Please model this.
Amino acid sequence: MGIQERKEREKERRRQQIMVAAKRVFSEKGFNKATMEDIAQEAELSPGTLYLYFKNKEELYASLSLRILQYLLIRVEHVIDEKDAGPDQKLKSLMEAMYDVYEFDPLIIINMFHLQSSETLKNLSPELMDQIKDLSRKSLSLIATIFRDGVEQDLFIDRHAVALADTFWALFSGVVLWLTSKKIIDEQKDYLKQTLEIAFEIFGRGVKKS
Amino acid sequence: MGIQERKEREKERRRQQIMVAAKRVFSEKGFNKATMEDIAQEAELSPGTLYLYFKNKEELYASLSLRILQYLLIRVEHVIDEKDAGPDQKLKSLMEAMYDVYEFDPLIIINMFHLQSSETLKNLSPELMDQIKDLSRKSLSLIATIFRDGVEQDLFIDRHAVALADTFWALFSGVVLWLTSKKIIDEQKDYLKQTLEIAFEIFGRGVKKS
Amino acid sequence: MGIQERKEREKERRRQQIMVAAKRVFSEKGFNKATMEDIAQEAELSPGTLYLYFKNKEELYASLSLRILQYLLIRVEHVIDEKDAGPDQKLKSLMEAMYDVYEFDPLIIINMFHLQSSETLKNLSPELMDQIKDLSRKSLSLIATIFRDGVEQDLFIDRHAVALADTFWALFSGVVLWLTSKKIIDEQKDYLKQTLEIAFEIFGRGVKKS
Amino acid sequence: MGIQERKEREKERRRQQIMVAAKRVFSEKGFNKATMEDIAQEAELSPGTLYLYFKNKEELYASLSLRILQYLLIRVEHVIDEKDAGPDQKLKSLMEAMYDVYEFDPLIIINMFHLQSSETLKNLSPELMDQIKDLSRKSLSLIATIFRDGVEQDLFIDRHAVALADTFWALFSGVVLWLTSKKIIDEQKDYLKQTLEIAFEIFGRGVKKS
DNA sequence: GATGAATGAGTATTCATTCAT
DNA sequence: TATGAATGAATACTCATTCAT
Model:
């Protein structure tokens, strides 16, 4: 078992090594312009090795999204677990969590959408696709519970909690997308943060009952 | 002149014919999987003909974005021209305009962002790129005037008008993106509309001073 | 007939107009990079019109060679007709004639070789091919008579006349080719002329008996 | 070292394998009609493999010229090194060397000119272009030294050595070109050899002082 | 496991040629 | 005749993926 386990650990380390390289390369060049060769070089491995750990290019790409979704879920779960906090406070915590998610990987986050919408990513293994969908759903429904509580306690405007959660998420991704499209990232990260703040502030206000 | 003009008209018709086909194919397959062959077939033309009207694949793609930006600008200008309306009313009109922009072309609108952010689209002729940037800037600065008026009249919260305009746009695009990524379009357009409504309602509330 | 003849004349004028344009374009870009569109524009005609006068691109190209061969033959015939001149004097005249042929069209002359050697020019109509071969042969055999006379009169070294004619031609074309490959043309035409002179001088010396 | 070296050797072997195939195909079809597919098939490799060893079609083509220039330089250097031989004898050796160069690759030798003169070959890597130019220059200047010595020793006619070297080279290439254009190669190699001999004999006579 | 050389399917683009007007 | 818009065959090159070592 010791040996078995060590191998497992070693294997996971390699996966991470590749994903780190892939993140860098995809971020810089985008999915299409990034070649497996590029990624292999960045990871200081041979192209063939990549295929020992990821079925294909798209699966490697998708795995990056998976990672961020995993991180997102952890953060959202923590927010939910703030036992003493009311919906109001949790909303605030949620916004902070989103900042951190953004910090975790500013560029991949928008690609994640692309991933899900794309007609092209039919090569994903069903398992991976399921994991991604599952994680998304879990996070989103947890977020929705915050809004459900708020609505039930008559603190938030009377909209379906899921719709509010969707809007919250859309707002976040929209800001990232929009500002990314203006290539603000890296150069003016502060501006991005500011705009995110405005967006969430507005969202917070708009959600709360007057 | 008659003959010259007719030719011009005919040429423009062809361009439109190609763009309609391109829109369909790009929407269905995305930029990379869509082949010029596909588009030619959809347009019932030969591949070579496409190149009589568009310099290359990317320019054809970008032209679609241009079209929607032109439509957006027209709509925004109309909103601005509502002389008797206050910032409040104009904000409402603006939201309606955005719905229509979305209806005009639900899928291309997100690709537009991709376009502007992409490192890959270096093949665009400078003129086209300039037109796109120019139209974007014009629309955004007009939208900003609405918020500036609102802030000056102390109706809206005191944020820099441009930041508010950015946030507005980000909100809109975020909703479209997020929901598109869930492939709701076509199947559940109503749901998308609902969510857009919630988003804008929240934005309206959040923007206004209490 | 008047009308018939005028039409014929008009047709010939058009052919010349096209050939002049083609010569310019082929000289500048070479056979492959030159497009029929280019030539049409240079001739201020439409691409379609070119095909009313020339079967295809290669035939148009070959026609330029034909023209120079026609000019060559005329010049060589004049040399032969110098009744009072001995082989010695005729050789000198011949060299002068070659200068003029070169002046007539410095670039096409080397392309002519390419033409004859190319495996690619199978599209030529047999008639045109025959004309080219016929003209080449005629010129060459006339040149050979000069050498035959020289050898017979024991003025030239005792080699087969045809071999001498071949060598003469090869020398000429070689100089043109070699110096063209150094891109001397246009910039240093004088140097080319000088080198041609040296070459012919050497040839003249070498051919004459001591 | 052993392993590194063997790989290097293997790589070089592949390059040669490809060049041999390319030479065959280019010789038969010419640059434009020869497809990379053709060459790959001839080399019993896949098209992609060609690009592992040569940047593009033009560079592959140019590499063939490089090879012959390398051979030429070696031969010329040997001629120069004939310590006891006078200019007269060296000229004779030089002519023999040119025969051998011609034997080495009868068809590519004329394409080499095309290469240097062509406006189209702008895709060559500067390094390769430099190598070609460097080799050409070296050979030519070595050849020129033979003529310089001849002129200085008052054995050759009083012409600038470089001009004589140019003429010598032009004579050689001209004969190859001219006779190639008559498609004599392969079918009547002997005739070509004869003509080269006559040409060189005439050149030799013409160069020497009487 | 790791390698990386080899593969070969896939595609944007060009341009000689045609033909309806 | 002349046009020039439309054609569509032809091809260099890329890169995800494989597999012998």
